Every structure is written in C-alpha cells, then in structure tokens.
UniProtKB/TrEMBL annotation:
The lineage of its organism: Bacteria, Pseudomonadati, Pseudomonadota, Alphaproteobacteria, Hyphomicrobiales. Keywords: Signal. Residues 54-137 form the Peptidase M15A C-terminal domain. It comes from the Bacteria. This is Peptidase M15A. Gene3D superfamilies: 3.30.1380.10. PROSITE patterns: PROKAR_LIPOPROTEIN.
C-alpha cells in the first residue's frame, strides 16, 4: 500500500512538471509545408533550432502552452558569419543560443507581444514593423527593469 501511494504521488508530481507545450497544436493551414527541427517548426532550412539554451527552450514552451499552438521559428542560433551576413548585431544573443525570432500561425502578433512583455523569462523583446515575427531573448534584465528590454517598434 505504501509503495502504491508513493507511486501515485510521484506520478502526480511529475505530471505537474510536464510543459503545457506538449498539448500545443501544430496542425492547420499555417503549418502546411513546414518542417520540424528538434521539435520546433522552422520557416526555412537555414534555421537552427538545435542550439537553444534551456531557458530559451522553456520560454518557447511557455509561449506555446499559453497560446495552445506551436511557434514557427524564423531564426534561432546563428554562427557569427551567418549573423553578420543577415545584418545581426555583433553581440547578438542569436550567436549565444539565447534568442529566437518566431511567429504563431493564427495568433495576432500584438497578442504575442503583449504576452511576452509580461513574461518574466523574456529579457529582450524586438518587434519589427512590417514583419510577422517577434524577437525574444533570455538575457538578464538590467537592474531596475520590470519588463524586458524592448527595441525596434515594441
């Protein structure tokens, strides 16, 4: 009896730790033709979704769980050479496996931005006018910042 009750408690505790992203949907017209790279949908073959810091992976799961849909990554890890070729900042968090540019099919960009602004895991938030994606990174927030560092149209 004692073993059974211990087993039930353990299953309940582990179940509570399961990320809600496990239940996020990756189906529908917005996902047609996209490929998955390490469990993340990517918009093209140049996107590296392998090198994501644990904190960034947790943030992505949190966002997917909140909206109930998988993100589609436009940019993840970039080598310094790739980063320079796309005009990225020299000290870009993309080169440190700490940033992602993404969108969520069927979810308004403004809703993603609003959620990211209030998410404690987001250290930096970039919103590019005329683009369908947002940038998030998991840098440490500067002292005194209650929200993420924002730039480019946020």
């Amino acid at each position: 009896m004692r073993i059974l009750s211990s087993l039930i408690v353990m299953v309940c505790l582990l179940g509570a730790c399961a990320p809600m992203a496990m239940f996020a949907s990756g189906s529908g017209a917005g996902y047609n033709g996209l490929r998955s790279d390490w469990g993340t949908y990517v918009s093209h073959s140049n996107v590296n979704a392998f090198c994501l810091s644990p904190k960034l992976r947790l943030l992505i799961w949190d966002i997917e769980g909140h909206f109930g849909k998988k993100v589609v990554m436009n940019s993840g890890y970039r080598t310094p050479w790739h980063n320079a070729s796309v005009g990225g900042a020299e000290s870009s968090f993309h080169t440190k496996c700490m940033a992602a540019d993404f969108y969520i099919p069927g979810i308004a960009k403004s809703r993603v931005i609003a959620y990211a602004r209030n998410n404690g895991l987001v250290g930096g938030l970039g919103c590019y006018p005329g683009q369908n994606f947002v940038h998030v990174d998991v840098r440490d927030r500067p002292r005194g910042y209650r929200g993420p560092v924002t730039f480019s149209g946020c």
